[in-house]
């Protein structure tokens, strides 16, 4: 089977799935968008690997703060992806993390081309935009949220199959009339690429972080995050009598917020851009406590992949995130701390962090439990076979006409156990 997997963000575990499908004998091309700024996985084939990695939209520039221009660029990226499909002629395509303008353009063209594709639904974009429209954004985004809801439903109906990452997504697809072709497969992290390392490591020494206790955040900081909470958390730990340095590995508009708030509250801050993936274990190993942020309004419809990476690193994890989020269960099961992402939680969060930093033995035990949980939850073979079945079923479907009506359904709701 010839498969094209497109993960817009270039995350580690999607690339790992492509490698596994290739190892199982399939002809796999994995594409991603280098214009999107985020922590990237290992997007180069290693010795003996037959998977091909190929970018989409080389030369495109995405300005996240210029929304009209961004919508246009993202739509063009959809056409770039379609051009890749036409050139490679895969039996089936699977897409993940694709922004809405890109997804709409891709869906429209795939219907005209009569080619099957699978939606790996990582985030309900309509719900995300609606959650923030009345809280952080101007009124026009309320209209955008409604448009996104229509567009996301329209695209989902035209996918041959839909893979969602949490049970909560099924309710949305029930409303959209697409739940009968949904399979629930939770996300994971690549255990062989993300592993515990010594606290005193080359990366820590390079950045002068060996002698200081650290709170570390690595990942995107966008609408679903409040970066100022990180600084105020560090201030609370310091006020509780434990010196600590805040280390943030990220890029984008949140950098200015972090610098300003750190200066205002006199919090030691190390702010760095996204690091090479082969240094990622050292980055995470440098954190005495790893912090996850997710706004309450993001709820159950966004599972932060950084949480899964943190657990692989074998470090204590603090989640300032909704309790109903699927990742919150994992953090709690690893004896981490989960609290609402609000200022009222910071005193309790700071007390937990201080206790972990003071008690090295307890920190080690929590870290070991994090890694053990990751090893029990993130076995790739458990879910790779399900993806293989879904893609094969989609590829076998007879070609449809280029009409843009509903494509019907093909399977009942199932879950990867």
| Count of discrete alpha- or pi-helical segments spanning 4 or more residues | 15
The strand count comes to: 14
Please tell me the CATH architecture of the largest domain by its name: 3-Layer(aba) Sandwich
CATH topology description of the largest domain = Rossmann fold
The biggest beta sheet is recorded as: 8 strands, parallel
- The number of domains is 2
CATH class of the largest domain: Alpha Beta
Structural class designation: alpha/beta
Question: What is the CATH superfamily of the largest domain?
Answer: Glycogen Phosphorylase B
Structure notes:
By secondary structure, the protein is α/β, with parallel strands linked by helices. It folds into 2 domains: 2-188 and 379-415, Glycogen Phosphorylase B (Rossmann fold); 202-377, 3-Layer(aba) Sandwich (Rossmann fold). The chain has helices spanning 12-23, 67-88, 100-113, 125-133, 140-158, 168-176, 202-206, 228-239, 254-265, 280-285, 305-313, 326-333, 346-358, 360-377, 380-396; strands spanning 2-7, 27-32, 52-55, 92-96, 117-121, 161-164, 182-184, 214-218, 245-249, 269-272, 289-293, 317-320, 337-339, 414-415. An 8-stranded parallel sheet has the order 3-2-1-4-5-6-7-14, with helices on both faces. The protein has a 6-stranded parallel sheet with strand order 10-9-8-11-12-13, sandwiched between helices. α8 links the parallel β8 (214-218) and β9. It is globular. The protein starts with a strand and ends with a strand. The model is unreliable at 406-417 (pLDDT under 50).
């Amino acid at each position: 089977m010839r498969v094209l997997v497109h993960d817009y963000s270039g995350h580690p575990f999607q690339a790992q799935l492509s490698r596994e499908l290739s190892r199982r004998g399939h002809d796999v091309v994995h594409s991603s968008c280098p214009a999107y700024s985020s922590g990237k996985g290992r997007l180069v084939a290693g010795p003996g690997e037959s998977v091909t990695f190929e970018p989409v939209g080389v030369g495109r520039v995405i300005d996240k703060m210029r929304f009209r221009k961004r919508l246009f660029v993202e739509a063009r990226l959809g056409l770039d992806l379609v051009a890749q499909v036409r050139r490679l002629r895969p039996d089936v395509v699977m897409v993940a993390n694709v922004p809405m303008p890109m997804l709409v353009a891709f869906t429209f063209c795939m219907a005209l081309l009569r080619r099957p594709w699978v939606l790996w639904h990582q985030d309900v974009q309509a719900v995300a935009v609606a959650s923030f429209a009345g809280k952080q954004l101007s009124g026009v985004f309320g209209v955008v949220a409604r448009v996104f809801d229509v567009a996301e439903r329209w695209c989902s109906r035209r996918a041959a199959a839909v893979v969602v990452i949490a049970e909560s997504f099924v309710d949305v697809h029930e409303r959209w009339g697409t739940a009968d072709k949904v399979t629930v497969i939770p996300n994971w992290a690549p255990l062989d690429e993300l592993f515990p390392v010594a606290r005193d490591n080359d990366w820590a020494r390079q950045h002068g972080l060996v002698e200081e206790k650290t709170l570390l955040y690595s990942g995107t900081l966008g609408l679903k995050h409040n970066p100022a909470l990180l600084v105020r958390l560090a201030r609370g730990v310091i006020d509780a009598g434990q010196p600590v340095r805040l280390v943030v590995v990220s890029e984008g508009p949140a950098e200015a917020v972090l610098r300003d708030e750190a200066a205002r509250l006199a919090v030691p801050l190390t702010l760095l851009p996204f690091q090479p993936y082969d240094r990622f274990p050292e980055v995470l190993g440098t954190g005495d406590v790893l912090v996850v942020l997710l706004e309450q309004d993001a709820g159950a419809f966004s599972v932060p992949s950084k949480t899964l990476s943190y657990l692989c690193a074998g470090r204590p994890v603090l989640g300032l995130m909704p309790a109903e989020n699927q990742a919150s269960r994992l953090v709690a099961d690893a004896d981490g701390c989960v609290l609402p992402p609000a200022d009222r939680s910071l005193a309790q969060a700071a007390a937990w962090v201080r206790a972990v930093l003071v008690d090295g033995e307890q920190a080690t035990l929590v870290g070991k439990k994090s890694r053990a949980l990751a090893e029990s939850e993130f076995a790739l073979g458990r879910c790779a076979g399900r993806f293989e079945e879904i893609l094969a079923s989609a590829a076998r479907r007879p070609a449809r006409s280029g009409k843009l009506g509903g494509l019907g359904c093909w399977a009942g709701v199932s879950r990867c156990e």
